[in-house]
Each structure stands twice: as C-alpha cells, then as structure tokens.
Specification:
Pfam families: Glyoxalase. This is Catechol 2,3-dioxygenase. Keywords: Dioxygenase, Oxidoreductase. InterPro entries: Glyas_Bleomycin-R_OHBP_Dase, Glyas_Fos-R_dOase_dom, GlyoxalaseI/FosfomycinResist, VOC_core. The chain is α/β, with parallel strands linked by helices. The protein has two domains: about 10-15 and about 140-280, 2,3-Dihydroxybiphenyl 1,2-Dioxygenase, domain 1 (Roll), CATH 3.10.180.10; about 20-130, 2,3-Dihydroxybiphenyl 1,2-Dioxygenase, domain 1. The chain contains five helices and 17 strands. A nine-stranded mixed beta sheet has the order 14-15-16-13-9-12-11-10-17. It has an eight-stranded mixed beta sheet with strand order 2-3-4-1-5-8-7-6. The chain is globular and about 50 Å long.
Length: about 290
Amino acid sequence: MIEAEGHLDRLPKGGAPRLRAHLAGVALTSPDPRRLAGFYMDAMGYRGEWHGDVWTGSLAGRRLSIRPGSANSVDHSIFALPDPLHLADLRGRLVSEKVGVGDIFDTLLSGPAIELADPDGNRLVFGVAADAPATDAPDFPRLQHIVFASDEAGRMVRFYCDVLGFAPSDYVSDEADDLTSAFLRCSPEHHSIAVFRAPRKRLDHLCYDVADWTAIRDWADRFADRRITLRWGPGRHGPGNNLFFFVNDPDGNWIEFSTELELVKGPRETKLWIHEERTLNSWGTAFLRS
C-alpha cells in the first residue's frame, strides 16, 4: 500500500529546531490598501506611513505592510534570526539542498538578508534582527505566527522542517493517519508557522499575541466598540493550549488574538492529535479546514 504524501510516517519527527528565529513582519496584498490600512491603524493601533501605494506600519516591534494586489494573499513574510552565524548556517543548508535564494536588503533587518520561496510559492525573507526596540504600550498585540493553507501540506512540512530547520511541535491527523494540520516552531513558542490541509493554497490567518486573559477580554471589547464581530471564539486550542478569538479584517483575512501559548523548552517528541472539533477548540465548535 502506497502511503499518502502527508501520512504521519513520512513526516519529520520531533526534536529541537535548528532554526532560531521569530516572525518579524508580514506584507499583505489588498485590492483596497487604504481601507485595509485604516482598519489596522484604527482597530489595532498600528502606526504607519505611506510610500507611494504601499503602507507600512509597526506595532509591538513587528511590521505589517500592505500593497496593491488580490485579497487574502501574502506578498512575503519576514523572519528575524539572532545573529549572522545563524543566518550563515541557514544559507548553507539552503545551498546544500539546492534551494534558490536571492539577496535582499530590508530596513527591518540588519545587513543583507536572503529571500526564497517555499513549495507553495510563498515568499520568505530571513535576516538578522535589527536593534529596533518597541515603543508601543505593553498592552498592544504582537504579531506572533502565520498559518498557510495548502493542498500539499506534507510537502510543506518536510520543507519547513528538513530544509529550513523548524521543529514539529504537534501534528493533527485524520482516521487514515494523514496530516490535517502541523504546528512548527523556531523558538520556544509552540509555533511560529502552521500548515493546514485545504483544497487550495492560500493564507489561512495571522495571529497576534496578547498578555493574558484580561487582554483577550479588553481587545474583544475594543472590537465591539467598533462593531467588529468576533467570528470564532473565545475558545482554547488543543495544540498550543492557547486561548483565542478570531475577527475578520475588511478584506476577509482571519485575524487571531491569542494568549497563554505553550512554551517548549528543548527537544521533545511531536504531540499527536485527532482531527476533530475538540482538538481545535476544547470549549466548543471549530472551523475544520478539511
């Protein structure tokens, strides 16, 4: 019997991440960048400015930019590494795996960075973190992870783990032991990227971390004041054990607010979960992508 490309037996095993990094920025595309930027400034507290038709904002030391294009799409994501040695190590792995890379300069990063594409064509930028301390109040949310939907989830997971150096924290699988979602880390935080099995390749959601349960309440109230409806939650995820709720921005992008995300210290075996609503929300209903 031939196993599916996303069968658990064909996926990377647990351990510790070789990559040390954090999600430092995301660039969204939008058919109406000014409307979308207005949402992030008013509803979420971003400070930003325009350069031509591209808006760039900062919040809690992480960047969001918006440029013309289709809705529900990411132009690129930026990951910041702690020092040039870690960047050189990553570049070496990419060269040995014959992954095409380009050099790029970005003001969010210190010195030259590298740019590449994952198997689904998502553009990724890796560079050394610049010394740019956050100036926002401590109760503002921090961009923490990005999730991609994919019709080739197993292939994506193998690339992120075997090539880039992420470690799989948790896998969720169906009755045939085929992967439905994977949560991958490159720091002690449970995941900085996740991949969900879905009928097509797309952005699934962005997640912002807040301080505690009280902050979840306060941000839900802030959205309520602006007549922005919670689309899912509050609830608690199984993988990561975090509290959460979701809203939609004006383009329909899913935005998650989260707290109490599990911290993973050192190597560990990958936790396995059953593909069911309770896994994605132990408190109630869930949105299953496949």
